Amino acid sequence: MNTPKKIFILGTSGSGKTTLAKKLSKHLKIAHYDLDDIFWINKYDKKLPRYKRKIKLKKLVKKSKWIIEGVYGSWTGAAIRESEIIIWLLPGRLTLSKRLILRGITREKEIKNKVIGTYHLWRYMMKYYNSDKSSGYLGHLKITKRYKKKLVIIKKNGDLKILNSIFGKII
Question: Can you give the pLDDT at residue 109?
Fold first, then answer.
């Protein structure tokens, strides 16, 4: 099997999408793109209109190789269809909670932002598992069922070794 050159990484906040995308990007020498950079005009403040997101994504997907990561589902069909592999990061709630708290502590400078930002991410993550929206667990389940042949699900760190057999030693 040839090493995939169009990689889509899916998962909720704190699942490890960006960390994995950066590792793969460095290892494979393929640019990585965060869907948040397409979704937001100003990060986490003002959304880009849906039709403009789709246009930006279509341009990106036309490239010969890419790693795209994000939580979004409904407007990302072009990338999911064109991907050679879909990696769905699906750690448990306790693991996600620990990661989001650590992220909040290390990223934000002001204590108020640490608490508020961490709470919002944690709340979003908790809703993820009960959500049937395209960016929630049930939405992701629906999306991934269509593309089972190219789907790899990672639930715990030990599962990451599966990726070594696909991409070479990255973990």
Answer: 63
The answer to whether residues 5 and 31 touch, using CB atoms and an 8 Å cutoff, is no
Residue 22 has φ and ψ, to the nearest 5°, of -65, -40
Q: Which residues contact 52 (CB under 8 A, 6 or more apart)?
A: none
Q: Which two tokens stand for residue 46?
A: 């003002």
CA distance 36 to 39: 5
Neighbours of 87 (CB within 10 A): 28
Are 71 and 16 within 8 A, CB to CB?
no
What's the CA dihedral at 114, 14, 57, 39 to 10 degrees?
Answer: -30
* Sheet order of strands, 66-70 included: 32-34, 66-70, 6-10, 85-89, 151-154
pLDDT exceeds 80 at position 112: no
Chain segment 44-66, per-residue pLDDT in tens:
678 999 999 999 999 999 999 99
Return the closest-CA partner of residue 66 out of 43, 147, 76, 133. Answer: 76
